[in-house]
Amino acid sequence: MKNSFVLVLLILVISFNTLQAQWVKLNGPNLGSAACVTVINNNIFVGTAAGIYISTDSGTYWTLLSNGPNTSVRSITASGSNIYAVSYGTIFLSPDN
After folding, report:
1. Which terminus of the chain is more solvent-facing, meaning fewer CB atoms within 10 Å of its CB: N or C?
2. Sheet containing 82-86, strands listed edge to edge, beginning at the edge strand earlier in sequence
């Protein structure tokens, strides 16, 4: 009985450790907090107070979109080839993702 308890406890401990998510800090844009993030066609888009940053290499390098909204972006989503960004009371559309 004692061996069964130890075995069950050991299995639970091993299972718990393997089920935890592993997070890795990326070299993200360091302009304050990110309001939103989305992945479109393997590109990562992050909405910040300065506009939209894009990473095309899994988050190693980031570029502020010079042709994107130059205002605080609160939400980003895509539908087909269209990308939508939402700021305070304004919706922006980019038809060429």
Report:
1. N
2. 75-79, 82-86, 91-94
